[in-house]
Design brief:
The chain is an all-beta fold. Helix content is 0%, strand content 48%. It has a 6-stranded mixed β-sheet with strand order 2-10-9-4-5-6, with no helix packed on it. A hairpin with a 6-residue loop joins β5 and β6. The radius of gyration is 13 Å and the shape is globular. The N and C termini lie far apart (39 Å).
Length: 112
């Protein structure tokens, strides 16, 4: 089965850190760039980061640049999103995606 499965979402306080994971299966993972997209309550989807198939190029939205780090492990078909210095505005459902394959999302809640 072709799928992406996110994990690692949790409730944290402002300034805290989380590491999200995205596990891929059922397709040739190393051929695909991977994106992280989030959707906050009542808002549309927001692209936040991407990594190319080889991992050689990474991109970030301005809203997370300097706080989030994307990485991948092609041998284990995993993508990670390290999130530091979390802000209230980072509260959202986080998805990893190839844009043709979507995970179910993992919830990140930043609250004091």
């Amino acid at each position: 089965e072709v799928q992406l499965v996110e994990s690692g979402g949790h409730m944290v306080q402002p300034g805290g850190s989380l590491r999200l994971s995205c596990a891929a299966s059922g397709f040739t993972f190393s051929n695909f760039g991977i994106h992280w997209v989030r959707q906050a309550p009542g808002k549309g989807p927001e692209w936040i980061s991407a990594i190319t198939a080889s991992g050689g190029t990474v991109l970030y939205a301005d809203s997370v640049k300097g706080r989030f780090t994307i990485s991948r492990d092609n041998a284990n078909q995993m993508v990670y999103l390290q999130m530091n210095n979390l802000e209230l505005e980072d509260t959202a459902l986080y998805y990893c995606t190839t844009y043709t394959i979507w995970g179910q999302g993992t919830q990140v809640t930043v609250s004091s």
